[in-house]
What we know:
This protein is mainly β. It has strands at 21-24, 29-30, 33-34, 41-44, 55-67, 74-79, 82-83, 88-96, 108-113, 118-121, 130-136, 151-160, 170-175.
Amino acid sequence: MANVGSTTTSYTDGNLTDGQTYCHKVTSVVGGAESSFSNILCATADAPGQTGAVGVDSVTTGVYETTGKGKNKTTTFVASDTFSRGDTVVVRVVVVDSNGLPVSGATVDVSVTGPETATLTTGQSDADGVAEASWATSASNKRGNGGSSTGTYTATVTGVTGTWDGVAPSTTFTLN
């Protein structure tokens, strides 16, 4: 039981255990008179990123480009869906919980399919839910032979650590 004061219209119940169901009912006290109890409301505690299903909000491909020199040197992720043989294709995903909030510490499995196939696993997602994996394509030799096969590829999420929501977002890209 908590007495939250005479002018309070909200209350945060702290120190809850994820996955545990809690039920509440309230009364109002005005001038010494107390109302009857409200209907009971029950909810299961679910801290963002802790329990419940996690999923991938977006899948993007791109490359890292470096500009400047010395202390002015910066490296930036540039989204792209067209690559040349020999490029390293970066697959970037954003991991979110069931409330749409970023999840840190998750890894994501990605399947690249097309003329060739690859299976990638991202590093752990950061505080913004961003995780990345790279696919290093092969350039052809001086005669134009060999190298990764050109064509259209699809990068599809095939799993997320934790309880995955089962949604498999994907993106397509072209290797020239």
